[in-house]
């Protein structure tokens, strides 16, 4: 399993609008591509006077599926987000490979 993680710092002045947009439009659009099994939207627990940090984790079955998303779907979705929140956010993306799941330590 692959986790496609997008971490975003959003300016506090647009945070409420951004959150509503993510829940009602952006994340449903990403999920409607059929490339991801589920997602998690989390608030990063750090003090930051400049903005609020969030992590959106999209889970997909394998790299081939993720590459298909990146090659055929990601660009217009990212452009729409960038256009809407132009200079109000910073984002970076990371890939994680799940190597163990539901283990009891």
TrEMBL record:
It comes from the Bacteria. Pfam families: DUF4286. InterPro entries: DUF4286. This is DUF4286 family protein. It comes from Salibacter halophilus.
């Amino acid at each position: 399993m692959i986790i496609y993680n997008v971490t975003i710092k959003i300016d506090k002045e647009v945070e409420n609008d951004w959150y509503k947009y993510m829940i009602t439009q952006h994340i449903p659009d990403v999920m409607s591509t059929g490339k991801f099994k589920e997602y998690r939207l989390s608030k990063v627990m750090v003090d930051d006077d400049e903005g609020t940090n969030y992590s959106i984790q999209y889970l997909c079955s394998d790299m081939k599926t993720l590459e298909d998303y990146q090659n055929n779907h990601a660009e217009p979705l990212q452009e729409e987000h960038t256009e809407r929140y132009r200079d109000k956010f910073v984002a970076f993306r990371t890939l994680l490979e799940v190597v163990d799941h539901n283990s009891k330590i």
